[in-house]
Amino acid sequence: MTGGGPARVRVALAEAGYDVVVGRGLIASLGALCAAAGLRPTRVHVFEDVGVSERVRNAAVESLEARHVTRSEHRLAERTKSIVTLEDMLVSLAQAKVERSDLVVSLGGGVLGDVAGLAAGLHRRGVRVVQCPTTLLAMVDASVGGKTGVNLRASIDDTPVLLKNAVGVFHQPSLVVADVDVLESLPPRELRCGLAECIKHAVIAGPTGWGMLDLARLAGAMPALLGGDRTAMVRLVEQNVQLKAGVVEGDEREMASGDAPGRRALNLGHTFAHAIEACESTRVVVEGEPRHPQHGEAVGLGLIAAAALGEHAGALSAERRGAMTRAISAAGLPTTLQRGVDAATLISAMRQDKKASGGRLRLVMPTSQGVSMLDDPGDATLTRAWSAVIGG
Ligand SMILES: NC(=O)c1ccc[n+]([C@@H]2O[C@H](COP(=O)([O-])OP(=O)(O)OC[C@H]3O[C@@H](n4cnc5c(N)ncnc54)[C@H](O)[C@@H]3O)[C@@H](O)[C@H]2O)c1
Asked: Which of 190, 193, 264, 266 to mutate to test the pocket of ligand 1 (most atoms within 8 A of CB)?
C-alpha cells in the first residue's frame, strides 16, 4: 500500500491487463475508479447480491457516472449457480439494452461474480465487466483471473451429480474493486471460508512466502483478521491478489502441461473439496451444528487430505504439514468430516471431477517447496489421504 491510498495490483496479461484496487471506503468511489480505468460507458447494468447491504449497493450505484444505470438483485447459492440463473441475467442485459461498448458490474460474492462474469462474456459475444467482490473468498480468489461459470446437474452412470463450474468461459474483468469495509456485514462462517483460500495461497507460495503468505505469520494473524482488523485485512487481500495475479500471468488459460503446475496450482485441495461438496451426505460441525460444508470449508478439508498425500509421497515435511493444519485450525475451519460418508464414495466423486481425464486424476500436491503435480496415486493411497479428515 502506498501513501495511505488504496493498494493497486496489476494483472499483466498479454491481451489486456487490469488493476485490482484494494482498500477501504472504495465502493462510494466506484464510478470514479471506473472512469480512471478508462471505462466510460453509456449504460451500466449492476448485478447485485442481496447479501450486501442496501446502503453499500446504493452507494455503488449512485457513484456510477453512466447516463443509464440499471440494476437487478440476486439471491444466489451453489444450487442456483445454474444455467437458469445465467439465462435470467442474460435477459436482464437484453432488457437493459446493454451494448458491446457498455459495462456490467458484479457486486457480490463469488457465486454472483462467476455467473455475472459469464453473462458478461456471452452477452453480445462479450461486454466489459467490473468485479466488485464482497466476500473475502471473492476478493482473494474468484474475482481475479477471468474464470467464469455455472454448475451443471447431470445423471452420470445413473448417479445424479453436481458438476461444479462445468460450463464457463474465460472473461477477464476490466477492473476489480475490493473494498474490505463491505466485509463488515459478512457472516463469520463466510469469512473463515475465504481464509481457507488464503491458506491455499500461502502453501503455493512455499517457504519463501512473504507477509500474509507465510503460513506461520498467517496463522498468527487469524485473531486480528477474524476480529475485524481492517488494516490487516487490506494487507491480506493485497498480498493474496499478488500471488494469484502472478500465477494467472504465468498461465492465463490453464494450458500448462506436464510437471509444471502453472495455473493448476490454484486447484490445490480442490479435487478433494469438490468431492466433499458433491456428496450431499457430508457434514462438518460449524458453530456447534452439523452442516453440509461450504466451498471454503471443503477447501480446508481438501488441503488437509492433500497434505497427507504430500507427506505420504515424501514430498512434504511433517513440519510444513503441521503448519498447514495449524493455520486451518487457527482460522476456525473444520478439520474433520462427520461419520456418514466413506472414502470409496468420495474417491468415486473425485473421479467425476472435470479435472479428471477418463476417470484418471491428476492432483496438485503440496510439497515443502510449494506444489507439484501428481498422477493418479490409486485408491489405496487416496483412501489413506481421506482418512486424515474422515473421523469423528
Ligand atoms: N472464478 C474463480 O476463479 C473462482 C475461484 C474461487 C471460487 N470461485 C467460486 O466462488 C464461489 C464461492 O464464492 P463465495 O464464497 O463468495 O460464496 P457466495 O457468493 O455464495 O457468497 C456467500 C454468501 O455471502 C453473501 N454475501 C456476499 N457478500 C456479502 C456481504 N458483504 N455481507 C453479507 N453477506 C454477503 C451472499 O449473498 C451469500 O449468501 C463458488 O461457486 C466457487 O466455485 C470461483
From this structure: 190
